[in-house]
Amino acid sequence: MIEQVDLTRALSKEEYKAPYDDLIAKLIVLQQRAKQENIGVVILMDGWQGSGRGSRIGDLLYNLDARLTNVHVLSDLDKREVEYFDSLGSGVTGYKPIMQEFWEDLGMRGTMTIYEQGWYAAARRRLGSVPVDQRPAAVLETVGEFERQLADNGYVVIKFFVHVSEKSKNKRIKQLLSDPNTAWRVKDDKGIGEEDYDEAYKVFDEILSKSDYDYAHWVLVNGEDKRDANLTIAKTLVVELEKALNKEVDPAAKAAAQKAADNSAGKLVNDIDPRKRTEEEAAIVLAAATEIANEQATHAPRYSRFVMEKKPPRVELIDNTLSLTREEYKEQLKAEQKRLGELQLQAYRARIPLMLVYEGDDAAGKGGSIKRVCQSIDARSYTIFPSAAPTKPELLHPHLWRYWTRLPKAGHVGIYDRSWYGRVLVERVEGFASPEEWAHAYDEINDFEHALGEWGAVLLKFWVAVDPDEQLARFEAREQNPDKQWKITPEDWRNRDKAPQYKAAVNDMFRLTSSNYAPWNVIESTDKLYARVKVLKTINAALDKRLNS
Known about the structure:
Elements: H1 13-36, E1 40-47, H2 53-61, E2 69-73, H3 79-88, H4 100-104, E3 112-116, H5 119-124, H6 135-143, H7 146-152, E4 155-163, H8 166-178, H9 197-210, E5 218-222, H10 226-245, H11 251-264, H12 279-297, H13 326-349, E6 354-360, H14 366-376, E7 382-386, H15 392-395, H16 401-404, E8 413-417, H17 426-430, H18 435-455, E9 458-465, H19 468-480, H20 490-497, H21 499-513, E10 520-524, H22 528-547
Parallel strand pairs: 1-3, 1-4, 2-3, 4-5, 6-8, 6-9, 7-8, 9-10
Helix pairs in contact: 1-10, 6-9, 12-21, 13-14, 13-22, 14-22
């Protein structure tokens, strides 16, 4: 693929100036239109060391609205960190997942994020002893589906690879090294996989060919001539932005976005108490909810691109009779909490991150379970991440952005009270995401969880379930208890009206996200005592298995 670049092409000032100025004038207008239409732009500037990537970004930024642009420079690889985690032998790659820095710096839709180098370079420099012929596959495995998720969530993804000859590369690097003010720009070729030009060329070429996606094409740039390079970059941006702006807007996605924004602003209010309905009215509501549930289920994917468990859980198979006596509970709780405290300290020393995801029915006892977990471990070691309605900045990012930016550091514990599964649960049921958006989300989540596993995290997902009759009793008890009245809201009652829709959504979630590396754990919580102990036992078993594997 790289051989397509004509490195002999050179433009005179006369050939360059008029067409470039015309393109920049168009680009300035297109940038403002993209802001108005909430279209995000992601530009990846990759290429050889010494190819002039930074200069190309500088020339581009000179003409654009700086308030709508953000440049991310790939962080330096901390060799001491790499050596430290290698010495632990715990299967953790670093303090953070490789892809986290790119998610953290991703701008909102309506802005332009430019990555000087990026995810491919980050993956390439960590290949270490991986054989050359296996490096392209290893890079693509690390990168995952980042670009697909951006494209599916309202971003235009444009990837440039700036190519130069070996002679030019060496000459430019020599010039940079000769000046103390520019020598810092040069990285160790061995550390970034460029110590052998011909070998690196083959790796680059295969990576480019295999990641030249319909939704994120590679554009090859002649780095030998800056005018030709600038013209190629400007022309590509104009074409891609015009294409995005002329694309027909999905009315379902637009309506869902407005509904989600209204919900975030607290404009959606429904105080109907289902207990005040007649039996006939209740039957009508149930029939309508069942019809909607059946219609929504038709939009769910038939299968996942990831490997799922052969027998995932199902709501109707949950055993709500499981229980413990108070005496059994006290004895087992004490033992399991003590064990968890010990295991978590070992996990901290091994720098293994632990992530606990709590989803489930309203009033199922998620908070009580979280409290018993937190009692067991050092308060400095965990962070609880609640998932309220998304804020305006969060709504202008891909839905997983707010979780990529809220991960525990290696060795710490992240507890998620509700989570990224809101996309395929409440957002699906309430219409805060369009059918196409939530249908994409299953494999976006699978890719996210796969990346967490590759990082080295122990990820446990709990579905905390309660019998409908017991749930009703807990709702009514909360209403009568001043200390717990804040826990019951009109939304809780409204969710009972939508039980058929939630049941269908949960079963699709089990079927499409209970992967081999991150299966769902059903926590039968009609008896809270049983549920609290089961959660602790599940965590302890997972940590023990990981620490002794």
